[in-house]
Amino acid sequence: MSRTARTVIRGGLVITAADEVHADILIEGPRIAALAAHGSQAAAGWSADRTIDATGKYVVPGGVDAHTHMEMPFGGTFASDSFATGTRAAAWGGTTTIIDFAVQSVGHSLREGLDAWHAKADAQCAIDYGFHMILADVNEHTLKEMDLLVEEGCTSFKLFMAYPGVFYSDDGKILRAMQRASGNGGLIMMHAENGIAIDVLVEQALAAGHTDPRYHGEVRRALLEAEATHRAIQLARVAGAPLYVVHVSAAEAVAELAHARDLGLDVFGETCPQYLFLSADDLARPDFEGAKYVCSTPLRPVEHQAALWRALRTDDLSVVSTDHCPFCFYGQKELGRGDFSRIPNGLPGVENRMDLLHQAVVEGKLTRRRWIELACAAPARMFGLYPRKGTLAPGADADVVVYDPHAEQVISAESHHMNVDYSAYEGKRVTGRVETVLSRGELVIDARSYVGRAGHGQYQPRGICQYLTGH
Ligand SMILES: [Zn+2]
Fold first, then answer.
1. Does the pTM of the predicted model rise above 0.90?
2. Nearest 10 degrees: CA dihedral of 240, 259, 323, 329?
3. Are 229 and 254 a contacting pair, CB within 8 Å?
């Protein structure tokens, strides 16, 4: 009989979405075998190959970042993190699972897109990963393909009401995809911005000589996010399908989600740290520096943040993901000098999410359990990975983070591990830091040293959304 490696994590405060308990954790091979109170007879009896002392630390589930774009093609360039560099940076930040977006190109099948993304990620990832599918071309063939993808564990599909001529789907295509999802268990994810109207405002702004990055935020009006969110909700109701709205940033869009949820609809919303911690003031930074903050939906005036924090507490927003899509300032963001519409859209952040949300705990905006729910448990449930991912319980994958809640750090491009030449949070001081990370029982970060390897990360087929009635 082959021997299974055993690890014991002793002395920490174990925090999940449900509980906070002073417990030791026994890991056997890739999974958690048991939890037992500190000093209990059970815990005292555990022998182990490796013991990790977590005294004075938190022990939390590895983060699940349900929205990343490694190597994403956009505007004639590619997001600067590969699956290798991006998943390593994620691990440094306490995230042990990402769900990235495979892209279907117009005129090609979903299968071709999914295969291409598997090829990019295969043998590269330091942590586990799954895929959503971007539907750029809804037609009879791709609608049928959706059923097959759901069966093999790619259970969520992203549609765009923005980016006409690239990813955009009109209302008819959206309705057809939603109808298909209502029958096959898929979850429709929506980029909800009225791209047709936005393109008119872009054209008018450029014609008026308004070319600086700040105009990216001004033309992408909050009302056009709210309008698209409202329309997506109504289309989902007509189709009888659940809906997940990605990267919600406007207070008016949150109000649409809150109304839908008050009606008891299967409508869910996600926001990202950049909308909670950054604002249109960053987009307005001089000397083209605002380009570092160009993403869509855009950063909003600071007043919107209160509505987002409130919605995170009331569950009108259920998940915090990063929408990690980094482009270097030099050579990439610069493509849009003199024309904000040519600035590649996206921010780096996969490494910063757990720390920034912990900072919200420090500042009294979230409870510790809500931190873990938003960053680990809810995304795992939303996308069919729970309880293998997102919690610490017997039988779960041993994706575990030992977190020092008292360590201070200053976020900086000097010290981060993402492959991008700036940090959106440069100079920000936060309390709390990842110390040790295990992925399926194997050390990835050991007391602030990277000991992982490309190819450890495995593809994770997913079940369907676990928030739907009857599942
Ligand atoms: Zn995205």
1. yes
2. 130
3. no
Q: Is 276 left (phi over 0), alpha (psi -120 to 50) or beta?
A: alpha
Distance in Å, CA 67 to ligand 1 centroid: 6
Pinpoint the alpha helices (H) of 18-109: 41-44, 83-92
Q: What's the rounded Cα separation, in Å, for the pair 305 and 119?
A: 38
Q: How far is the CA of 350 from the centre of ligand 1 (A)?
A: 12
What contacts 104, CB < 8 A, 6 or more positions away?
110, 112, 113, 133, 134, 135, 136, 137, 142
If you compute the radius of gyration of the chain from its CA atoms, what whole number of angstroms results?
Answer: 21
What is the distance in A from the centroid of ligand 1 to the CA of 322?
Answer: 8
Q: At what angle do helices 195-207 and 222-239 cross, to 10 degrees?
A: 160
Q: Residue 214 corresponds to which tokens in the numbers above? A: 């700040």
Q: Is the pLDDT of residue 1 over 60?
A: no
23-57 pLDDT, tens digit each: 999 999 999 999 999 999 999 999 999 999 999 99
Centre of ligand 1 to C-alpha 157, Å, is 12
From ligand 1's centre to the CA of 297, what distance in Å?
9
**Distance (Å) from CA 323 to ligand 1 centroid:** 5
